[in-house]
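Page 47, continued from p. 46.
Same chain as before, 284 aa.
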Amino acid sequence: MQPRLDSFDTLRAYPAAGKGPSTPLVPAVSRALALLERLAGAREPMTLARLAGELSLPKSSVHGLCNTLVSFGYLRRQSDGAFLIGPRVMGLAEAFVSGTDVAQEFNALWSDGGMAPEDTVVLSVLSGTDALYVGVKKSTRPLGLAFNVGMRLPAYLSGSGKAMLAWLPVEEVRRRFATGLGTRLTKKGPRDLEALLKELALARRRGYSVDDEGVREGVYSFGVPVFGASGEAVAAISVCINKAQLGGDRGGRHRDVALAVAADLSRRIGGDARPARRLEEAAA
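Result:
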């Protein structure tokens, strides 16, 4: 999967899938996509001046791009003039999810009636340095955090994100986070790359990862990778609970639900619920 594209110059370096490196790109489309990626990565409203500066584009060009994207619903403008990602992007996320086998099988788990979890269960895929949520089974219990399809969180903070990162080669993790772990959502979670690598090594050894209030205070989750037919971790399951529900077994029954759902989902997409040892050796 290609890394997140954070600027127009970066975007130009990645031609369309299946095309050669000399494939010509349409500059206006490239700039529009770079603008959307920049806003998505910022996770906060951005002014026209800031967008123009960070994209190294003339303000007049960015103004035209923003007006066009607003008119189609891919951006929205605040009363102070700053821009945010618009609701139309959800249609793209839903179209992606509908064509993803692992998401279809995740939804089939519940429609088939085989499981009825008490807690919130989410399915994520790795998108650059983010965990992208492509499936959600919500609990009736209040969690204090609403997960929705299309939502992104830093992979190094979320349970499912760390479960996927744990099965990447260490050098690939270093490459993805070469600029550091910039975003913090609470006071917890790994503070630097070396701390993250220690967490990932522990997750590989025990077969699951933990998010202990790294995404939201009071929220705890167990993440387990989902393996495809090639033996790679193609997605991850996360069971999310209020930390107060951990109990005397330190959340053992919730962890077991995450392990069971991930194993079932791996089997449904033709993968092995027990990852091959060669994967652990590759990640070491």
